[in-house]
Amino acid sequence: MTEPRIIVHGGAWTIPADRRKAHIDGCRAAVGAVWGELQRGMPALEAVRLAVNVLEADPTYDAGRGAVLNADGQIELDAAIMDGATLNFGAVAAVRGFLHPVDIARKVMDTEFCFLVAEGAERFAREAGIGAIDPAELVVEREVRLFNELRARAGFSTHDAFRPQGGVTGAAETGDAACRCPEPPMPKGTVGAVALDAAGDIAAATSTGGTPMKRPGRVGDSPLCGAGTYADNETGGASATGFGEGIIRVLLTRSACDFLRDGNAAPDDAARKAIDLLHRRVSGHAGLIMLDRRGRYGVHCNTQHIAHAFAVPGGGIHADVNVQR
Predict the structure, then answer these.
(1) Which residues of 33-51 are buried (b: 16+ CB within 10 A; e: fewer)?
(2) 314: phi then psi, degrees, rounded to nearest 5
(3) Of the candidates 222, 252, 261, 197, which has an alpha carbon nearest to the alpha carbon of residue 89?
């Protein structure tokens, strides 16, 4: 028997002071909702789905309720889930009117397909018994204000949300000069979870609303196998958050898991190497959470914050927006 583990994230960005508590509390709640069940034998695949459900329902994050609006003022959601025992993978993208896209992705795993999008994914969800909701129920006032502000900006590009704005971040609050990095100013509250169950199986899941003012139909890294989501019992599991186009180009989560392949590398080091690869090759900004097959956690980002929480061996839950370095 393996001692179960679970870790979740709620996005990597510069989280304003008045929003940090909500990010921390939401991540803690997601771990707390499934930690006891994992200890009682819940499979990792079910644990990550349920943990992500908690985060999708929390309007704090850019996933499910509270997701960003695209350039048409609509919410389009992406999600993925992966089983490290079988490498089975399910994903959906650009779905509207569903609170829990990760549930649709989980249903996709039971078909002959891996990935469904837009109207096809929505039709499949209804046929699978997942009820749609009024898309207006997903919209929060915070994102309406952001949409109106960005729409009024001449020449705004969705990638502006990830471009450095000058200066450094992290050092002022942590005192750690090593974590100085450019400051991406816009919200990036993608959510994700990675779990290890008592049978030794690893699973990962990720869910997102994407980037502010994205082009309708745009798909980022979250639902792509090896980019935003990956799990393999032979190495580990990972979920990413950040600039999706960069994450896709380096297959960030698969790269991170590959750094675990010799069995000796610590997940923190693997996550750091993967983020360094992202920045070196495509000047990307992101955060990663990881678990290896031995149950060790890894968290790293090159943004100022990454909201995250994990079950502490022996009891308790650690939750923070800062990474211990």
Answers:
(1) bbbebbeeebbbbbbbbbb
(2) 95, -10
(3) 222
Question: Could you tell me whether strands 89-95 and 115-117 are parallel, antiparallel, or unpaired per DSSP bridges?
Answer: parallel
Asked if 209 and 156 touch (Cβ cutoff 8 Å), the reply is: no
| Residue 222, CA distances (Å) to 184, 247, 303 in order | 19, 9, 18
Cβ atoms of 300 and 271 within 8 Å: the answer is yes
Residue 157 pLDDT grade (very low, low, confident, very high; cuts 50, 70, 90): low
Average per-residue pLDDT for the chain: 90
Which DSSP category does 265 fall into? S
Phi-psi region of 50 (alpha: psi -120 to 50; beta: other; left: phi over 0): alpha
Give SS3 for 255: helix
Q: How far, in Å, CA of 238 to CA of 234, rounded? A: 13
β partners of residue 13: 305
Question: Taking 70 as the threshold, does the pLDDT of residue 169 lie above it?
Answer: no
Contact 109, 88 (CB under 8 A): yes
Q: Which of 14, 60, 158, 190 does the annotation list as catalytic?
A: 190
> How far apart are alpha carbons 10 and 240 in whole angstroms?
10
190 is catalytic: yes
CB 245 within 8 A of CB 159: yes
| 50 Cβ contact list (under 8 Å, min separation 6) | 33, 34, 37
18: helix, strand or coil: helix
Whole-prediction pTM: 0.92
Measured distance CA(10)–CA(309) in Å, rounded: 9
Reported as a single tens digit per residue, the pLDDT across 82-125 is 999 999 999 999 999 999 999 999 999 999 999 999 999 999 99
Sequence length of the chain is: 325
d(CA 252, CA 131): 33
